[in-house]
Fold GreA/GreB family elongation factor.
Amino acid sequence: MSVAFVKEPNEDQVEVLPDRDLGTDPNIVTPRGLHLIDGEIAALDARLIEARDAGDKVALAHINRDLRYWKARHATAELVRPPHDPQTVQFGCVVSIERPDGREQRFTIVGIDEADPREGYLSYLSPLARTLIGKSVGDTVKAGASDAEITAIAAG
């Protein structure tokens, strides 16, 4: 039988990992978001050296894929600085809302990679951020199952 039809495992061969999806939405970032992207690249560069030194080909494949993603995110990043004295909710702004039960919440509208809702960072593409953008203090917005009032807007 021809060798061409025999698939022998090769310990030096690592599956090529598909690239991470970059999406099609604009990659707008805050100064904090750009700093976080730079941090990811630096951390991955350090891990890449460690993986090379260890000869860990699987780790190298994962790290190289992630590096391609973060470098592409950096290359396409559009830095947007929040306004100094915003009158309406915009990208980069910190927004405070009050819910009917008296609970207050603060959110910062940020880029996709910077989003962390548990920490109060909402992607500008999230439903709540889309509802908030363009609104002013005193406006009522739909926030989940109930309404909420915007009580403050500040530069991020």
User: Anything to note?
Assistant: Residues 25-79 form one domain. The first strand starts at residue 28 and ends at 29.
